[in-house]
Write a structure and sequence with these properties.
Blueprint: E1 2-6, E2 17-23, E3 28-31, E4 34-37, H1 41-49, H2 54-58, E5 63-72, H3 79-92, E6 98-102, H4 108-118, E7 126-129, H5 142-153, E8 161-165, E9 168-171, E10 176-177, E11 186-187, E12 195-198, E13 201-204, H6 210-213, E14 233-237, H7 244-251, E15 258-263, H8 273-284, E16 288-293, E17 317-318, H9 324-336, H10 341-349
Parallel strand pairs: 2-5, 2-6, 6-7, 7-8, 14-15, 15-16, 16-17
Antiparallel strand pairs: 1-5, 3-4, 8-9, 9-12, 10-11, 12-13
Helix pairs in contact: 3-4, 4-9, 7-8
The structure holds asparagine.
Length: 356
């Protein structure tokens, strides 16, 4: 981590935001082999924000900036990057009124989901954003996205990890990246927007926020994700004709501790009993298995069809309407915490941060 830079005017830190710059297209600059994460983000951001109309500049909260080192393309992120962010935010929590994480879009929703589990009971905003085009590129979405993220990160009442992108504030643990090019690259398939930009106003809908749904003192869980960042949790998406030996090749590996299975529709498997046997063996070995749908919208209802019956008996936990991100990071999180299989299974089925 490097330089801390402050906006020109002084404000006590508890009235300020902390911006954590981790990399991503938003800050990238052209190099020989293509775009690479660029430095001097605080200065570049200040000059971009200086292009906003004066009234909007005046409405901006004061902020400090931290830049991570190395800056990464978020396609390189692992659970250890999620852990670093969780710990850095937790360590500075009461120093700042809110946090903005500047992140690459490829895995932004994964980081947001992980942070939600780490920062349970959060009492202030943590808003992640990024951009589809670099800050200085013509027609870039970067300035609009950071502007909105700053405004929402200074919003009283927002008490959770959220994503701000293309005028929309979304629950982090309910979001997915849905488009590889369009500016509105993120969506929340199974939860309404937490807020949105309407003209020059940034409107938060508190009745949809976590603050009113489940509250208590912050009860952060910051376990060590070491040992869970090199493929120990896997994600398997079905395809027509998937064979049991293929499932076995993934789940039979002793390094694998958990798996997200993406099944057909409402939670159906091909009718090969050997597939269910393979799942039963893996869960019998103590592996944490969950099923979600391949469809981005809707839930799994294990057992609604004969083709999905038997999953629960094989020890597979219903992931309901959870996103792959929410299910995967939750498995990682629960596996990193102390506790036995039954405790983990119970917690998986419990809504911890509005993820299900
Ligand atoms: N590859 C980039 C990243 O995730 C994509 C982006 O930020 N738009 O870092």
């Amino acid at each position: 981590m490097s330089t801390l830079t402050s906006l020109a005017y002084a404000a006590p830190t508890h009235e300020r935001l902390l911006i954590i710059y981790t990399g991503g297209t938003i800050g990238m600059l052209p190099a020989d082999g293509g775009l690479v994460p660029g430095g001097d983000f605080a200065e570049r951001l200040a000059s971009a924000l200086g292009q906003l109309p004066v009234a909007q500049q005046q409405a901006l909260p004061a902020y400090d900036v931290i830049s991570y080192s190395p800056l990464i393309d978020s396609s390189a992120a692992t659970a250890l990057n999620w852990q670093t962010l969780g710990r850095d935010i937790a360590a500075r929590l009461t120093d700042y009124r809110g946090f903005v994480v500047i992140h690459g879009t490829d895995t932004l929703s994964w980081t947001a989901a992980s942070l939600a589990y780490q920062l349970q009971g959060l009492d202030r905003p943590v808003v992640l954003t990024g951009a589809m085009l670099p800050l200085e590129a013509p027609g870039s979405d970067a300035l609009d996205n950071v502007h909105g993220a700053l405004r929402f990160a200074a919003t009283d009442g927002l008490q959770e990890v959220a994503i701000y992108f293309a005028n929309r504030l979304m629950r982090g643990v309910r979001s997915i990246k849905q488009h590889s090019e369009a500016p509105d690259a993120f969506t929340t398939p199974s939860y309404p927007l937490l807020g949105e930009r309407v003209g020059d106003d940034f409107v938060y809908y508190p009745s949809r926020g976590l603050g009113v749904q489940q509250r208590g003192a912050p009860r952060f869980e910051l376990p060590d994700y070491q040992g869970l960042h090199q493929g120990e949790v896997i994600r398997i998406a079905l395809w027509p004709g998937m064979a049991a030996w293929q499932l076995e090749a993934w789940l039979g590996d002793s390094r694998v501790k958990g798996a997200v299975l993406q099944l057909w529709g409402a939670g159906n498997l091909p009718s090969d009993p050997a597939l269910l046997d393979t799942l039963a063996v893996a869960s019998g070995e103590g592996k944490l298995l969950t099923a979600i749908s391949l469809c981005p919208e809707g839930s799994v209802h294990m057992g609604a069809y004969a083709a999905g019956h038997g999953l629960a008996e094989a020890g597979v936990l219903s992931g309901d309407a959870m996103t792959p991100e929410a299910a995967y990071t939750k498995l990682t999180h629960l596996l990193a915490l102390p506790g036995g299989l039954e405790h983990r299974r119970q917690r998986f089925l419990t809504a911890l941060v509005g993820e299900r």
